[in-house]
Amino acid sequence: MTDPIADLLTRIRNGIKAKHKVVEIPASNMKKGITKILFEKGYILNYKFEDEGPQGKIKIALKYHPETKIPAIRIIKSISTPGLRKYVGKEELPRVLNGLGIAIMSTSQGLMTDKEARVRSIGGEVVCYVY
After folding, report:
1. Sign, CA torsion 86/90/95/96
2. Which of 19, 114, 115, 119 is the most buried (most CB within 10 A)?
3. Which candidate, 60, 3, 34, places its Cα nearest to that of 129?
């Protein structure tokens, strides 16, 4: 696998399209950080890190509206790829859907959303957009 982050996003996207309640993903520190941010911002219902085997797994419970069954994540797309990294300075931080969505950034101070990076006044690599 050349792009594990794209794999994470694709598994979440496919789980939502298939209306699954839980998706299982091989773990890494970057994926754990992205999962924590998605949970904190209310895009997923819950998550669980399992340390079985050499790599471990992440189980993500997807979030849907209780009556209409519309998923909380409408679009989740990768921005940086191994072939073309997308870096931005503190002046060019992205605004997703005019502030309604989030951009997950990898900075020198760890993973954070575009709003947190704007407050801390730091740039970094744009990992993905979620809305």
Report:
1. positive
2. 114
3. 34
